From TrEMBL:
UniProt keyword annotations, A-Z: Phosphopantetheine, Phosphoprotein
Region listing for C-terminal hotdog fold, in residue ranges: 178-315
Residue segments, region N-terminal hotdog fold: 41-164
UniProt entry tagged with the keyword Coiled coil: no
All residue ranges annotated as the PKS/mFAS DH domain in the record: 41-315
Organism: Emiliania huxleyi (Coccolithophore)
Active site residues according to the UniProt entry: 73, 236
A Pfam entry, by short name: PKS_DH_N
InterPro entries linked: KR_dom, NAD(P)-bd_dom_sf, PKS_dehydratase_sf, PKS_DH, PKS_DH_N, PKS_KR, PKS_mFAS_DH, PKS_NRPS_Biosynth_Enz
Transmembrane segments: none
Name the UniProt record assigns to this protein: PKS/mFAS DH domain-containing protein
Amino acid sequence: ALPPARSHSTRCVSSSRLVLRRRVSGLSQTPRSSTELRRPVPFLGVSQAGWDGDERLWELTFNAAELDFLRGHRVGKVKLLPGTCYIEMARALVHSLHGDTGFVLSDVTFQSILFLDEVELTGPPVVRLTLDLATARLAISSSVEAGSWDTHAAMDLIPRQADATANLEVATVKQRCPESVDGATFYANIGNQYEGEFRQLKKAWGGGATGETLGLVEYARHEKEHVHLRSCAWLDVCTHPGIWWSGRRAQGSFASSVRAYHILKAGVAANRVIWSHLCVDVRREGTLRYYGESMSELVRIEGAQGGFFEVGWLESRRARRHMYDVQWASHTDRVAPAHVLHVGSRYVAGMLHVTAAPATHDRLDAVAFAAGGASTAAGGAHSTAQLVALDAAMSVVQLNVDSPALWFLSSASSASSASDASSQPASLGTHSGASIAGLVRCARQESARVPLFFTVAGNVTAHLACVPSLLDPELEMRCDAVHVPRLRKALLRGGQQASSGMDGMHLITGGTGGLGSLTASWLAERGAASLILVSRSGEVSESSARQLVAGEAKALVCRGDVSDAVAIPRLFAFSSPTLEGCTLRGVWHAAGVLADATLPRQTSTTLRRVFGSKAIGSHSLHRACAAQPLQCCALFSSV
């Protein structure tokens, strides 16, 4: 987090702030039309209040083009909103209230970071600008997914005409800066992985005894349509030269504090070439000046100080926020044996055999279903066996809605040792056990009055003679011990930190759908050399095609159905000549068929359709890629 804000509860109101209040109050005497008030303004949004009262509110939501542009700003590898956006928001506000005039943002405090690395999941943030007319204090905050409002920055807003300034003497400054670096070398060696228009420093000079730096920012053309985005970018890029001579260039860097921004010109239409000149005083505070192509001063920043994160620190904080493991803990509480109806299924010679033990009591406490046989099948028969067992388990759920309790038992292929208690149950490693576990979890979400339990047992009959307490939704019995699942915070084990690169070739099933397209873009960003996009249609949308063409990764779109056991081997045989020399490093199984319905409405047909692409597809991928040197294999859930 950035340094906390200072308290402003006892601030005196200066005459310049009173001028702002009078000018704003003057506008309230002639209210604007509702149409004008509701018209969105770039980087300002829409007014949320009338012209009365002591506060003015605006709210804005970045559109897709703005988000794509702003996500080119990085601290380390993390996408976040640049602080220069706050300058452009203030510029839009001043223009809305006073027209084209210069202004000062003083007593600036940064309070928190506005992250942009999860907008695909959460949607764009809603940004709010709150102007206190009594104190001229501007606060900028945001809310994600209709949650609480987080304040990111606060500052005093003072409209005023520009001060007289001197032009930049480039040759004179260069004489005091004996060292230089070109833009390509600069961005290849710093910690912040900027993209797009935030990566436009052409050359920088520095290395003198005083800490002085000079920077040249150059774009291919003037930006006339999205001037607010271009200004946001060059305001940030002009701060980059100081990173090179900071002694900490490999770390993630950011602006930790600024005393004041002086915006000397209301707008910058000539925005192709910008110069920056940084002077550092004895207190190590910098005064940074920005100059246009004519060498006249545009912006002055006073009291600028930079901050740094250790390499990987911010990335690790973002990547591990919600990571948890399931730990299987010992459980000792037991209750008396219950009156249980035993129902079992076994897949033999292509047929499902269902058995039920005769009831020996008038009262029935639970129905226990044990699926077997699927784990011993091989190849295509294996997939058929697990599907049939899952279908039988679903029938048990549908036919026993009135039973007091319903237990599902899946036998592990071999007994596990007590030392494995912290890992997942042995039978969850088998397809039949994992499939039925998923079915039980879905059923638990739909039925509040019928408790459903999934039990792993080496010897089903022996373990049912002494049933554990029925407080946990899942449990495992092995080696005469009972284990129950507990969540624990995931620990990053030594030597298992994820690689920052995703080089080589990657296979994405469902590659032309929504998840597949996002995954392809993400992999291309991280250095994937080749992408094989597999889908039943074999067709790519226009937006996805544009992203693939713009990237450096070679993409091959193939038509295929992963629920067909022979589709994957055939796909590899087809694509090998085209992608010769590429090594398969990742498999991303995002294929899926949507057939949503509650369990009572599910049928064998809908189950087979969904199960085919997810479970049978993953089994086919596993068999086809078993000998490949994979870096990663990701299976996308359907829930």
